[in-house]
Amino acid sequence: MSWDFDPVQGQGYSTVEISISDIITTESCISGVGDNAIRYILSHYGNRTLSTGVNIVDPTWLALWDGRTLPSPLPWFLMSQSDSSATGTPLRGLAIPFGVGGWRWTTIYVNFEARGAVYFDSLDGCFRDTGREAERKMRAFFKVFEIFFQGSGEFRWEVDGLCARQADYYSCGIYTVRNCLDLLEGRRPSGDVLTEEEVGHFRRNGGELLRRKRIQIHQEEVRREAQANLTYDEMAVSTAEPRDKRKSADTPHSGLIPEFHSGFNAGGTISEQQHALSEKVGGFMQTSVPKRK
């Protein structure tokens, strides 16, 4: 199962381009965390087992959905229900990172069992229209996808009053990530305010993760290009002269795959232990990655 998503259909795909800007804004203490950082962090650290019956939704899906149409095919997060014989757990809810006004992040939990949704806003109280945009979207979502909700009755909408409140204007994406990580583990989002140290760990670890992923994507693109060229060469060879008459028969593909600089991927890496989430906030915000040499 892929945990990288097409923002419109919610279908999995292999790679999403990571820009230098994604890394810089993630690491900067005076910048918000972008949708690509949220996408990769939740993909890497979120509960992949679906044992809780909660699926993640791409951070841009709800904003891009037109609010009227039933997508065809159905989005990934509705088709990939955790009702396999291995877990026996039905689809219970969705964790949705939701961008408000294109500049700040909030969290929505869709509760299929209770026929409703709960809204978590770490900047609640700073804006008069808190939750209105999200509520409009979710009421439209209920009308189109009501078949996935259990029981009968009207749609219920609640704004959570116990979620943590951030101490600045730049950390809303970080709180949204933590909320979603908790929801994917079947927990209520923590009400604890993140310390400056935890926020700093998040930004450093997030930047390091994006760097590693960016390198992996580049290497995968090189491998795919090399494989495509190899296939093309093999087709050409099949229609060319007999093998013993070709001068380059011994090394037909020399230099096809470029060698990386020896220090291209050098530096510290995050251990599996550091990757593991703790029960409270998650190791992602508790342990800083080693400094790159």
What would you note in describing this structure?
The protein has 293 residues and is α/β, with parallel strands linked by helices. Helix content is 34%, strand content 10%. It has a five-stranded mixed β-sheet, sandwiched between helices. Strand 4, helix 5 (132-145) and strand 5 (156-159) form a beta-alpha-beta unit. Helix 1 (20-27) runs antiparallel to helix 7 and helix 2 runs parallel beside helix 6. The longest helix has 43 residues, at 196-238. The model is unreliable at 1-5, 7-14, 82-86, 243-284 and 287-293 (pLDDT under 50).
Task: Summarize the helices and strands and which ones pair or pack.
Blueprint: H1 20-27, H2 35-45, E1 54-56, H3 61-64, H4 76-79, E2 93-100, E3 104-111, E4 116-120, H5 132-145, E5 156-159, H6 172-184, H7 196-238, H8 272-275
Parallel strand pairs: 1-2, 4-5
Antiparallel strand pairs: 2-3, 3-4
Helix pairs in contact: 1-7, 2-6
